[in-house]
Amino acid sequence: MNELWIGLFAILGGSLRYGLSQWWALDTFPIGTLAVNLIGCFLLSFLNQTLAHSKRVPTQLTLGIGTGFIGAFTTFSSFMNDAVQLMLQAQYFRAGIYLIGSIGLGLGFGFIGYYAGRYCWASLIAQQRARRDLAARQILSEIAPTQRDLKHK
Description:
mainly alpha; transport; sodium; Fluoride-specific ion channel FluC
């Protein structure tokens, strides 16, 4: 059943990648593939710090989004093909900028996604604890006598 979820999400991710790559296409530089891969680096790192830790999100959905959608959205083969095409056109400087920029910026976006997800997850947990603690205090205040009540007895 996991394969079905991954496949369905892969259709969406691959279609979106193709559309964005065409929309952002430049004749001189593969900005579309670069942009899509950087977005994917952020999203996968963010996902691994949020949905992957949630007990409320089914594993199939996390696999579908991570492996299916983001896996098909980003693609190493397109990245390498774009670099090879630049080299075959003797655009070595652009190929170097593309390769180094993709890897360096990809790491940067991955770390930003990681820390953003970690922050969001920690904030969510803190909010849940605060709500739980408030509810517990309200229940205790309703059933437990207060100091004032004990003094009047």
